[in-house]
Amino acid sequence: MSAHDIARARQILASAKRVTALTGAGVSAESGIPTFRDAQTGLWAQFDPMRLASPEGFRADPTLVWRWYAARRARVRAVEPNPAHRALAAAAPRFEQFTLITQNVDGLHARAGSRDAIELHGNILRTKCFDECGVVFESPEELPAGEPPRCPRCRAYLRPDVVWFGEMLDPAVLDRAERASAAADAMLVVGTSGLVYPAAGLPLAARRNGVPVLIVNPDESELDPIAEVCIRARAGEALPRLFAAD
Ligand code: OAD
Questions:
Q1: Which class in CATH covers the domain with range 3-32+81-121+169-242?
Q2: Adjacent-strand bridge partners of 128
Q3: Residue from 70, 55, 44 nearest 140 by CA
Q4: Is 198 in the pocket of ligand 1 (CB under 6 A)?
Q5: Residue 195: CA atoms inside 13 Å, Cβ hemisphere, count?
Q6: What gap in Å lies between CA 137 and CA 159, rounded to an integer?
Q7: Which among 137, 192, 166, 199 is positioned nearest to 52, based on CA atoms?
Q8: 232 in helix, strand or coil?
Q9: pLDDT-derived band of residue 43, with 50, 70 and 90 as boundaries?
Q10: Percentages helix, strand, coil for the chain, rounded to the nearest 5?
Q11: Rounded to the nearest 10 degrees, what angle do helices 201-208 and 171-182 cross at?
């Protein structure tokens, strides 16, 4: 992580009134949550996430998919937000407008104190009716028994309230994210490979609107070519320095 890059990024943030941040799995890596492009570890190594995280995969084996998500939920609840999540939460009040958009479903931004994060891909701790009859459970504690449980209203299976492969994002959620990205004075992109759309399209739209894009990622990403500054560092190291008081 070069001091020059940090200084340049801090300068851009210092003059920004409206900041939008887009985070990906990399922001939770230092909390111990594997990223998508890391090999699936342990018990689930033999399964393909593309198959499990899909309506077809759920229909084919609801119990397997339910158990996979239950294991991921347990892992998420066993870890803590890391300095990157906390730096983003602490920085928000310093700006006229700070919008946090995340691709992550782990809820760690909220646990770090970020309010009103835009969860593009949903939240693994929330559960909904597979047939979308309107039943939603905000926390796993409320869930009826069963693997998966049945919807109390229509008796369809319940499923995690996350966006699966092949599913559309909630248009209202995406619209809010698009508006925040276009209206920003600076856009911070942390811990994403930039491979998955429409999320990866948000920084591109910002750049087209002349918004400087700042990337924090220890590795190269698809979005690097549009970045004003690429900070080659882990989020937990870089973000506290990026937002440190003068
Ligand atoms: P990926 O696993 O594709 O990318 C994670 C990025 O984080 C990579 O570019 C890593 O280099 C970077 N990274 C790793 N450790 C880091 C650290 N300590 N600090 C900062 N960056 C780090 O995850 P996403 O880009 O988030 O979609 O994947 C996007 C979407 O693909 C996910 O939301 C999911 C998946 O399909 C859905 O669930 C719909």
A1: alpha beta
A2: 136, 159
A3: 70
A4: no
A5: 8
A6: 10
A7: 166
A8: coil
A9: low
A10: 40, 20, 40
A11: 40
CA of 76 to the centre of ligand 1 (A): 16
Residues whose CB is less than 8 angstroms from the CB of residue 197 and which lie 6 or more positions away in sequence, other chains included = none
117 contacts: CB under 8 Å, gap ≥ 6: 100, 101, 102, 109, 110
Residue with tokens 């998966």: 148
Residues 11 and 28: their CA atoms lie apart, in Å, by: 26
**Which architecture, in CATH terms, is 42-78+127-162?**
2-Layer Sandwich (3.30)
- Residue 54 beta carbon below 6 angstroms from any ligand 1 atom: no
| C-alpha distance from residue 161 to each of 85, 122, 216 (Å) | 22, 6, 28
**Helix (H, G, I), strand (E, B), or coil: what is residue 149?**
strand
Neighbours of 80 (CB within 10 A): 11
Atom of ligand 1 nearest to the CA of 165: 39
Q: Which two tokens stand for residue 91?
A: 């920085």
Q: Which of the listed residues 27, 28, 31, 36 should we mutate to test ligand 1's pocket, taking the one with most ligand atoms within 8 A of CB?
A: 36
Q: Is the pLDDT of residue 45 over 70?
A: no
Give residue limits of the domains in the chain: 3-32+81-121+169-242, 42-78+127-162
Q: Rounded distance, CA 187 to CA 21, Å? A: 6
Q: How many residues does the chain have?
A: 246
Give the range among 45-49, 62-66, 68-72, 147-151 with minimum mean pLDDT. 45-49
